[in-house]
Amino acid sequence: MEKRRMQKIFEEVSLLGFGCMRLPQKNGAIDYEAAEKLVDMALEGGITYFDTAYYYHDQTSESFLGKALTARHPRDQYTIATKLPLSVVQEADDLERVLDLQLKRLNTSYVDFYLCHGLSADAYFNKFKPMGVEAFLKRMVKAGKIRYYGFSTHDKPEGLKQLIDDAEWDFVQIQLNYLDWTELDAKTAYQHLVDKDIPVVVMEPVRGGGLANLADGPRQLLERRFGGQSAASIALRWVGSLPGVKVVLSGMTEPYQMEENLDTFSPFVPLTEADKLAVANIVTALKSLPVIPCTACNYCNVCPNDISIPRIFARYNNYVMFERPEELIAPYERFIGEGHRAEDCEACGICVPFCPQSIDIPGWMQRVVEKREEIRQER
Asked: pLDDT tens across 75-134, in order?
């Protein structure tokens, strides 16, 4: 397993991190037996960085790791990253109360990497800086409850720059992949962090699984250059080839995903310049496809009608990327219950401010409805 040392804090971590946001499920809850096997596979394969959060899996991901990881394996074999849920914090007294709850869930006395979850410059300067969040984090380091602190963000590069210029951060987690490098200007965000000598942790390296499944045109370009290598492995190698990146998080649900990702990083082979040029051509081909830039983060899960937004968008994107119109008929109706479909969207817009990708959710819902009707008429 490739290991990298985080500058400034001199902590060595595995380049591949296990993101515990998409654990296997059974009957709507974490499948403990299956997920526990993934944890064991990760440790045996050399993964030392386990990433979770207060909200993941309806607030059960931390508790799962407390049972599957810290209760079963020596604490010095791995590091744990979890996140301060900013929406839960209303006043300064909430900060330590929430952290203590997370430590209890995780069955540990300390967290190695503690992040302000989804921090924006707006929220920081208007709420959390006046609340004294940086002083709190430093106090928790002295108290031994956390070792290092940082933040995750979906903010624009200028917002990220304001954040890293105002406070001292040990590391920062950003969304980064070969499509968002230009689409969301992740290149500038990455460069801001490199310029400040801040270690980069990457989320969404395969863009919520989107870059693992390509339409015919982009897929043919990939196969022409990379032969039998999977699209997911190329996406991971592209991110890992950036020297400022210290951890690449992957949310693995199935054993084959864990096995393939461990192979990709053990040993890790950076992309060549010719490889990177081939990926740039794939990006050009992808940009010609009208997919929805949804990463299935579920932050939009505030719909009063409980519309299954990420599931609907996933079916639509499968239709586009795989050129399979049937995705919007049988699988759509099988996996998305009545009353929770695009047809049930009232375009209230409540979900829109919660989307890190700034997607026009009501507009895309209408597009899905129209495309479903168009497909039906063609049959």
From this structure: 999 999 999 998 899 999 999 999 999 999 999 999 999 999 999 999 999 999 999 999
Cα angle: 243, vertex 166, 132; to 5 degrees: 120
Q: The domain containing residue 225 runs over which residues? A: 3-287
Radius of gyration of the chain, Cα coordinates, nearest whole angstrom: 21
209's CB contacts (< 8 A; 6+ apart) are 232, 296
Confirm whether 302 is domain-assigned.
no
Out of 287, 319, 339, a domain closes at: 287
Considering the domain architecture, whether residues 169 and 266 belong to the same structural domain is answered as yes
d(CA 118, CA 83) in angstroms, rounded, equals 9
CA–CA distance, 169 with 81 (Å, rounded to integer): 15
Please list, in sequence order, all residues whose beta carbon lies within 8 angstroms of the beta carbon of residue 325, skipping any fewer than 6 positions away: 319, 375, 378
Pair 211, 235: CB distance under 8 Å: yes
- Is residue 185 situated within a structural domain? yes
Residues 146 and 65 in one domain: yes
Are 372 and 261 found together in one domain? no
Q: How far apart are CA 107 and CA 105, in angstroms?
A: 5
Helices (H) and strands (E) in the chain, counts: 17, 12
Q: Is the pTM of this model over 0.85?
A: no
CB 77 within 8 A of CB 112: no
What is the SS3 assignment for 116?
strand
